[in-house]
Amino acid sequence: MKNNLVVKKNPLVNARYKLNPLELKIILAVVGMIDKDDSDFWTYQIRVSDLDADYKNLQRAARSLMKRLFEIENDDGWVMMPWFSYMAYKKREGVLECHFDPKLKPYLLQLKDNFTAYTLKSVLPMRSSYSIRIYELLKQYETIGSRVFNLDELLQILQVPKSYHVWRAFSRRVLEPARKEINQYSDITINYQPVKTGRKITAINFRIAPNLKKLPLKQYIARVRAECVGKTLLRTTDKETGKKIELSVSEKGYLYNNLDPHWKITHKRAQEIWQLMQDNEVCFEYIAE
C-alpha cells in the first residue's frame, strides 16, 4: 500500500475541508487503489492493519467521514459534496470497505492534466493532517519551486480554527510542525517566509525543492548534473591546500571551482563532496561554510 500512487485533480487538492489524520489517511489509502484506467469507482477494501488504528478509532473515523463534506470553488460559485456513499467494517477479514460518492469521479478518475500525484509513503508517517494538506498543496507546485498563499486563503483551505488565526499561533501550531514532518518524511523539502503588507502579515511565500536525501547517491548525482549546471552548489575549503572552493558542475558533469579554474580534486575528495552536497540538499538551498 505504501507505494500506491495518489492522484487528485488540483481543484480537489485545493478544496476546503477539515479532517483528522486517520480520516485523511483513509481517504488517501482508497485514492491510492484507483487505477489510472478505471472509468468508475469500485468498492475498495483497506486492511485495518495498514492504517495503524484500533477498532474504536476506526469506527469513529468511519462514522465521521460519512458525514464530512468538502467545498470546491469554481467559476460559477462553489460546490459541496461528501467523500463516501458507503463504508462497512468486516471484522473477520479485518478490512474496511469503502465506496466513493459518484460525484467525485471528475476529480479522481482518468485524469489527463491539472492533477497532483505522489506516493502514499510520503504522507503515511505524518501525524498532523495539516502536514498532509500542506504537503499536497506544495507538491502541486514542485516543478515551479515556490507557491505564495494569501494568509486568509490558506486558513480557509485548511479550515484552521479561529484560535490559530494569529500568526504566532498559526506558525507554531500548524506551519512549523508541517515543515518538520514534510522535510523528514516526504519527497520534497519546504521552507516559508511571511510576507507583510505594512506591519501586518498577509501572505506566506513557500519554497519547494526535491528531497534529495531520499535519493540513492547515483540518482542524486544524476539529478544535480541535469538540473544544476553552472550554479553555485557548495562553498567549502579544500582539505589539502586550505583554498576556498565555490563548487559548481559543468555541462559534462564535472565538478569545478568557480574561484580557481585550475583547481584539481582527488577522486576520494570528489566522493566526499558529493556526499556533503547530498546531506545538505545543495543546489536548492544556500549552504554557508
Write the layout of secondary structure elements.
Blueprint: E1 5-9, H1 10-13, H2 21-31, E2 44-47, H3 48-51, H4 55-65, E3 69-74, E4 77-82, E5 84-90, E6 95-100, H5 105-108, E7 115-119, H6 129-139, E8 146-150, H7 151-158, H8 167-185, E9 188-197, E10 200-210, H9 217-227, E11 234-237, E12 244-249, E13 255-257, H10 267-279
Antiparallel strand pairs: 1-7, 2-6, 3-4, 5-6, 8-10, 9-10, 11-12, 12-13
Helix pairs in contact: 6-8
What's this, in brief?
The chain is built from ten helices and 13 strands.
Relevant terms:
single chain, 289 residues, alpha+beta, three-stranded antiparallel beta sheet, 33% helix, disordered C terminus
Describe it.
The chain has 289 residues and is of the alpha+beta class. 33% of the residues lie in helices and 27% in strands. The protein has 10 helices and 13 strands. A hairpin with a 6-residue loop joins β11 and β12. The longest helix has 19 residues, at 167-185. The radius of gyration is 22 Å and the shape is globular. It starts with a strand and ends in a 10-residue tail after the last helix.
**Radius of gyration over all CA atoms, rounded:** 22 Å
Strand content: 25-35%
How far apart the termini lie comes to 42 Å
> What structural class do helix, strand and pairing data support?
alpha+beta
Q: Which percent range fits the helix content?
A: 25-40%
**Strand arrangement in the largest pleated sheet:** 2-6-5
H/E series:
EHHEHHEEEEHEHEHHEEHEEEH
Mean pLDDT: 87
Query: Quick one: biggest sheet?
Result: 3 strands, antiparallel
- Overall geometry: globular
Give the count of helical stretches: 10
* Unreliable segments of 5+ consecutive residues: 284-289
